[in-house]
Amino acid sequence: MSTTDASDKIKTVVVLVQENRSFDHMLGWMKTVNPEIDGVSGDRQFFNPISTVGPAAGVLYFGDGSEYVDPDPGHSIQAIYEQVYGVPFVDAASTPITPPGVASPPMSGFVQEAERERAGMSETVMNGFRPSAVPVYESLVREFAVCDRWFASVPASTQPNRAFVHSATSNGLTSNDNKRLVAGLPQRTIFDNLHDAGFSFGIYYQFPPSTLFYRNLRRLKYLGNFHQFDLTFKDHCKNGKLPNYVVIEQRYFDLKILPGNDDHPSHDVAQGQRLVKEIYEALRSSPQWDEILFVITYDEHGGFFDHVPTPVVGVPSPDGVVGPAPFYFNFDRLGVRVPAILVSPWIEPGTVIHEPSGPQATSQFEHSSIPATVKKIFNLKEFLTHRDAWAGTFEAVLTRTTPRMDCPETLPEPKKLRAREAEEMAKLSDLQTDLVQLGAALNGDHALADENPERLAERMTVADGARYVQNAFKAFLEECERCQKEGVDGSQVVEVVKRPTSVKEDDRAVAQRKRPAATLFGKVFSCLVCNTSQD
C-alpha cells in the first residue's frame, strides 16, 4: 500500500499500551481460533527445562490455565537475559548483555528464572489464557488483525519500552531509573513532530499520565492536550472531535472502587478487557470510525513465556547512547514478543501479519513501528531516531478499498477472573513507585529533603500512592493554569517549586487550617519556568 492510500484512509490513530504480558501468554492460544497465528495449539507443544544445567530435573510444558495471575514475574534486564539465553547474567565481561555469535536465543530460561524469583512461580509464567477467558480479544482477533511478530523495543522493564512507543528511544534507559524519570526524558517525541506539522494529538488519562515522563510534554503549550478519559473520551468520539493521534492512559493503581485496568499482574485481566471493549465501542459509534486505526499492544512481556526467539541481528541503536553499568547495553537486540492487535474498518476479518517487508532486511515490528507508521500516515518530514527509520510499518494491513460495514457494534462482556477485591493496602509495584516519583516531580516534592521521593514511595500503600499521584497531578495542572494566566511562553517547561513555610511550633495548627486546598504537605509553591528543556 502506498503512503497516499494510508493517508487517505486514516485520519486518527488510537494507541493503547497495556502492561506486562507476552504474546503466547495473552494471545498464543488464539491459534485455535485462527491457525495462521504463530501461537500455541497443543498442551505439550512448547516447554522449558526446569534447570538449563541439569536436564535430569525435567521440563515444564506451556499450558492454557491462566486466569488470575499473582504474583508479578521478573522482567528486569538481567531477568530477561536469563529467560532468553538460559543462563544467569553475571557481568558484562563474562556474560555480555548481547552474547556474540548467538543468532537465535533459545528462550529456555523462563522456568529457571521464575523459580529463582519465587518457588512455584514457573507455573504462572508457563501458562496462557484460553480464548474464552479473554473474549474481547477473541472477538477482535476474529474480526480484525493480529500481528504475531511484534516485539518489545528493549529487553528490559516498563519505562524503557514505554519511552520507545512515542519517541523510538529510551535515551539510554534500561531500567525504571527514578532520577532520570523524575527529571524527565529529554528526547523529541512523535507528539512534537505532529504538533510542529500542524496535526493534533490528545492524551486521555484515567490516572495521571505516564507520558509526562517525557519532559517535552511538560511544556505549557501542551496543557490542552491532556483530557480526563471518563469525562471527555466518549463525548469526543460521539461528536467527531478526536484528534489525529490519540493515546489512552489506563488506571495503573488497583483500588476497590476503581480496579486497575492496565493488565499488570496482579490486576484482573477482565478489567483490561472491559477497557478495550469501552474504547472500541466508543470508536465504533463515532462518525470518525471510517478514518480510525486502533492499535493495542503491551509494553513488555512481564516475565511470561514466549516461544519465538527475540531478534538479535541487525537491530540498530536508536541514537548511539549506551546504557549504564553494569550492562552497558548497546540497544542492539529487541525484547520478547508481545501482543499486538490492529483494528480498523479497512482491515479484513481474520487478518494475521507476520514479519514486515522492510524497510530493511532485518526490520521487525516493535514499539518504534508506531511513530514510524504515524510518520507515513501523516507524511511527517523526519524520523525520530535510527530505530523508527528501521522499524517495520503496519499501514499495509489496511487492504480494503472501501471500509467495512459489518464491523461489530459491541464486543462480548468479559467475566471477572479475580474472586477477591483489590488489595489497596498492598505495597506499591515498581510501576506505581515510578508514578509516585513522577508525582513528586510534578508537585515539587522531589526537591525537598524531608520528602525524598524514594522514601515517600516506600511508606505508601497502593491507596496512598493513588491518592498522592492524583493530588500531585492536580497541583501541576493548577500551576500550569496559573502560568497561562500570567502569560508565560507556551514553549517553556513548567516546574513546581516548593519551599517550607516559616511557622512557629505554636502556629502550626493555625497554618494547617489556613493552608489552601491545592497545597500539599504544608508547603507553598510557585511557578518556575525552566529554560533548559531540550527540543
Automatic annotation (TrEMBL):
InterPro entries: Alkaline_phosphatase_core_sf, Phosphoesterase
Keyword Hydrolase belongs to the record: yes
Pfam families: Phosphoesterase
Record's keyword terms, sorted: Hydrolase
Molecular function per GO: phosphoric ester hydrolase activity
Family, similarity comment: Belongs to the bacterial phospholipase C family.
Name this polypeptide is given: Uncharacterized protein
Organism: Zingiber officinale (Ginger)
Source organism phylogeny: Eukaryota, Viridiplantae, Streptophyta, Embryophyta, Tracheophyta
